[in-house]
Request: fold
Amino acid sequence: MDLLEYKGKQVLARYDVAQLPGREATTVDAAVAAAEDIGFPLVIKAQVKIGGRGKAGGIKIANTLDEVREHATNILGMDIRGHIVHELWLQLASEIVSEYYAAVVFDRSAKAPLVMLSTQGGMEIEQVAAEHPEALAMLHVDPLVGFHPFHARRLAYEAGVDADVVVPVGDMLATLYEVFVGEDATLVEINPLVITPEREVAALDAKVTLDDNAMFRHPDNATLDDSSAADPQEAMAKKRGLTYVKLDGDIGIFGNGAGLVMSTLDVVAHAGGAPANFLDAGGGAKAEAIAASVEVILGNPNVKAVLFNVFGGITRCDEVARGIIEAYEILKPTVPFVVRLDGTNDVEARKLLADADLPHVYPEATMDGAAARVVALAREGVVAA
Amino acid sequence: MSILVGEDTRLAVAGLTGREGSYHAMNNRRYGTNVVAGITPGKGGQDVEGVPVFNTFRQAVAATDANTAMIFVPPRFAADSILEAEDAGVATIVAITEGIPAHDELIVFNVLKRNPGVRLVGPNCPGVLSPGKANVGIIPAAFFKPGNVGVVSRSGTLTYQIGNELAQSGFGNSTIVGIGGDPVPGSSFVDIIALFQADPETELIVMSGEIGGSAEEEAAQYIAEQVSKPVVAYIAGLTAPPGKTMGHAGAIVSGSSGGGQAKIDALEAVGVRVGRTPTQVAQIAVEILRG
Reply:
C-alpha cells in the first residue's frame, strides 16, 4: 500500500520525526482555513501517488489567502499523469540551507534493507546515482543485527554531510529504520530532508509504502488506505477476494494463477489485442467466484470481448464452466466469450459448455488460438443478442 | 535421480490437521510420497489417516527421521514454522503458504542463509514434484511423467501449461520446482539451476520467470559462467504497465528495473533461447531434445 505524502507524514509523526507545520484539505475553503492557521509563506502540494508533481504544476507557493484560493482551485481536480488530485497538503514554507536525501528501501536482490543518504536531495535519486555516485552513501543492513549508531555515522561521513549535523542526521536515519521495521514498510523515503537556518533536520516530504501482507500486525494503519481513490471495479474485486488490475484495452481477461494471467495478457498483445484487465481468480475457485469475476470484468464498459484462459490444477475446469454458464444466465452479456479450458476435469467442462449451447460463447483448444480468436472478435465488434 | 524430493523424502507437514494441509498431504501420499509426520501445536498424539501428529518439529524429527518439511500454516504463523523446521534439522523445507509479511521472509532468509545444510523452496509456491517418485505440494501430478526436462518457475499454473505441452510432445520431467512469486524467495533461479546442472537425469532446463526483481538477470549471468546444459526460458508480464503489481507481490515493474524485455535481452545475450509464448517454449525445448 503506497501512502499519500501527508499520510506517510502521519506515520512519521508517531515516531517524532521533525516536520514543518501543515494540514490537509479536500476543498478550496478548507485550504483557505488551513492557511489561516499555518501562516505564510506556505506551500500547497497536490496529494497523488506519482512523482513529478512540481513540474506538472501540482506544487505552488502562496503568500496570501487569495493566492491560496487561486492555487487550490487550480490544483484540486488536476490530472497529473492519470492521477486526479482529490486532496491537498498545505505546509509552512521554510528557509532551507541544505536539501539532503534519506531512505530505507526493501532491497529484494540483496535480501536486506538498504539505507541511503545523500547531500544532493530535492531531485530524483536515480539521477543523483547516475551523475554524482560519490554523493550517495549506501549501506545494506543485516536484519538480524539491526541498524546501529556506527552505521549512521558511517553513512553521514561517507555522504559528506555538514559536520555539525552528523549526529541529528544519523538519529534521523535510525528513526527511519525504526519506522521501516516497526510499521512493516517496504519503503520510507524522505526527499528532501532539509537543514534549516537553525540547523534543525526536518522531513519536508515523505514517501511510505506499507506491506499489505503485514496489515494484521497494524490494524490502525487500515485507516491510511485511501480506497475512495481506487477504481470502482478494483474495489468490487477486492471485496470479493479477487486480484484485479484495470488496464487500458478492450479485451476482458479471466485466468487462474498470476503467472498464467500475466502470460495471457502477453499472448493477447502478441496477437494484436489490448487487454482491459488482469484478473486472477486464484486456485480452487468455485462457480460463484467465477460468476463474480465475470461481473467485475463486464463492469468495465470498454470490454468488447472476454477471454477465459484456465489451466486447472486445484481449480476444476467443470466448476469454471458452471460459473460461466451461471454468469451468462444472470448477467446476459452483450459481448462474446472465448473459452479455453485445460487440466483437471476439462473433458467434462467442455461437454457442459457444449450442452449449454450459449450464443456467442466460443470454445478454443489452445492458448494461442484462443488469443487470436478473441482479438478478432473484439475487432469485429460482434455483439451478442 | 531428480532434485530436492524423491524416493528418500520423509515428509513432515506443518498444518497437517488443517483442511488444506490434510487434503494436499493425503494427495501427496497417494502419489507415493512418504508422509511420516504432521506438526500442530496442541494436537500431539492425534493422527491424520494414520500419520502421527506431533506438537513440535523436534519431536517429529526425533520420532520419524523426517528430512523434508511442507509448510501449510496460515501466513502469520508461517515464518515461525519455517524457522522451527530449520531449528529441528530438516534439510528441505517447502513453504506453500501465501501472504507471509515481507519482513518475516527477510528474517527467515537471513537465518537460513547461515545454515548451508538447509534449502527453502517458496514461500507462496506450488511445491516440488519429481514425477514417479514424490510430490510435495499442490502441483497436479497427473499432467506430468518422468523424463529429463527440469522445470523451475515463479508461477504454478504457467508451469502446468508448459509442462503439459511438453508431455503432449512425449517429454517428461526430472523435477518441477515452483520457487514462488514473493519478493524474498528462499530459493532463486540460480539455486535451482545449479541443482539441475549437477543432476545427471536432467538434460534440459526450462526456466519460467516473470517481471519484477532481478532474479532472471542473475540467472543469465550464472548460466553463462556455470551451466553447460541447454536452457530454454519464458518471461511473463512483458506487456504489464509499470507501477502495477500483477498478482504476485514480486511481479511489478518499478522505475527502470524489473522490465520483461531487459530480462529477455539478458538471457538471449548468454545464449538462452526465450520463447515468446508458453507454446513456443515447449516447441523450442522439443526441438533441442530431438536434436
